[in-house]
């Protein structure tokens, strides 16, 4: 099952949408749109671009030791 989009009013002022995963988890929330048509166009843009979007890593570099740490097991990877 695919995710879904929910279109809603933000406090009665702006239109926004949220992208929900198949399990109902909110994956993303849009910025405000002044009208419903613009919000739907925003959904269309996300649908078109999301699968092909590049990733830009803006995180600071991590040390090799920090990358080898496995928080799930609280041990360092071999």
UniProtKB/TrEMBL annotation:
Listed Pfam families: DUF1508
InterPro entries, alphabetized: DUF1508, YegP-like_sf
Cross-referenced Gene3D superfamilies: 2.30.29.80
Name the UniProt record assigns to this protein: DUF1508 domain-containing protein
Domain DUF1508 positions: 15-55
């Amino acid at each position: 099952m695919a995710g879904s989009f929910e279109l809603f009013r933000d406090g009665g002022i702006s239109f926004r949408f949220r992208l929900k995963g198949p399990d109902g988890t909110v994956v993303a929330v849009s910025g405000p749109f002044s009208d419903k048509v613009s919000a739907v166009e925003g959904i269309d843009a996300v649908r078109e671009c999301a699968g092909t979007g590049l990733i830009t890593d803006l995180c600071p570099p991590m040390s090799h030791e920090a990358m080898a740490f496995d928080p799930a097991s609280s041990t360092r990877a071999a």
